Amino acid sequence: MVDHTRFWLTKPMEDMTEAEWESLCDGCGKCCTFTLENDDTGDLFRTRVACRLFDSAACGCSDYANRFATVPTCIRLTPATVPTLDFLPVSCAYRLVAAGCDLPDWHHLVSGDRETIHREGWSVRHQTISEAQLEEDGTDPEDYITRWRRPPLPPKPPRRTRAALKRPREKGI
Description:
alpha+beta; two-stranded antiparallel sheet; 23% helix; globular
């Protein structure tokens, strides 16, 4: 069971339980889509092409427990790897929490409803094509470059300075 008392604001990612860590995923599905990189410029291009295990209707992995065995290129997200993974969307809860930000209103830990992200249009549900389909058709991922809608994000909370943490001294009478 996950403690839904905004643990992501107070608990370091390294100290989260497995349930808390897994609950951070908002279910947008964007990390399961292919991102292409221009070798010359380093620019990243998002595509509508999803991993062969991605279920577009459910907007999630169809074999989550065995994904690393089935898809050797599937990347394990950890507190150490999240800051280094530039393919994760800026709206990714793991990225937001790693940067010290709060979660957006449409995140299920805030809204209380896992469908909010889909209703608000921030996920890739029903918008992807499987890499298996590309292999059958002989088409190229470059044909499916897209720009996903970028959701509004919560502001990063201001860092409290040492001076701000000091209590003002009361003057004697």
